[in-house]
TrEMBL record:
Protein name, per record: Vitamin K epoxide reductase domain-containing protein
InterPro entries for this protein: Thioredoxin-like_sf, VKOR_sf
Gene3D superfamilies: Glutaredoxin (3.40.30.10), VKOR domain (1.20.1440.130)
Annotated organism of origin: Triparma columacea
Top-level taxon of origin: Eukaryota
SUPFAM superfamilies: Thioredoxin-like
Length: 210
């Protein structure tokens, strides 16, 4: 029994884990050993003192260093806990960013003077409801563009389709397509390009490359 108790205490010191059963077993083993060795005479013998000191040392090591009262977490556990806490912080930050995204940058819109010029030149914009370039073109013109420009829906499934998607009797090659004072201009255009086109038309310049 004594050998088993000492073996348990040794394992306890290696594992650094609490084990009340091991301590009780060691105490019982030491008590039986003392009673068997001559009713206390073991204290007068060198060997008995050594055995008692060894047992006491193992018990002390198990209680104080083994972590029975206040167990110390292993380095691996501490690293895992730290990583977990770090992960929770990142996750919370990501959620906060998703809830409150940064404001979208303002989109430059056409000045009122350009819109008035386009209206005076009988401008039409041909497009389709599913056309992404058409949507971007409308956004660039600003929220009031319909007050100055006539929009022609060219897809039969579109809300405002009227079957008038031909210029000079010819089908359109793509969207968006413009007519400014009857001159066909293809493709999405920036505000600066529209200003240049309007100026060329107003000045009676060459429109063949517009």
């Amino acid at each position: 029994m004594a050998m088993a108790s000492f073996a348990l205490l040794y394992i306890l010191t290696v594992l650094q884990a609490p084990c009340p059963f091991c301590l009780v077993s060691a105490f019982c083993s030491v008590s039986i050993f003392l009673l068997w060795w001559g009713r206390g005479e073991v204290l007068k013998r060198t060997g008995g003192l050594a055995a008692l000191g060894l047992a006491g040392g193992l018990v002390w090591t198990s209680v104080v260093d083994g972590g029975v009262v206040t167990p110390t977490p292993s380095p691996a556990y501490a690293d895992a806990s730290s990583a977990l806490r770090g992960g929770e912080t990142v996750a919370a930050g990501a959620i906060a960013s998703a809830v409150a995204p940064p404001p979208a940058p303002a989109v430059a819109t056409a000045p009122a003077s350009l819109l008035k010029d386009l209206k005076s030149l009988d401008t039409k914009l041909y497009g389709a409801f599913w056309c992404s370039h058409c949507a971007e073109q409308k956004e660039a013109l600003g929220p009031d563009w319909r007050m100055y420009i006539t929009y022609v829906e060219c897809d039969k499934d579109g809300k405002d389709f009227k079957g008038q998607c031909k210029i000079d009797g010819q089908k359109l090659r793509g969207y968006p397509t413009w007519t400014i004072q009857g001159i066909k201009i293809e493709g999405e255009r920036t505000i600066e390009e529209l200003q240049e086109i309007v100026q060329v038309i107003k000045d009676g310049g060459d429109t063949s490359e517009l």
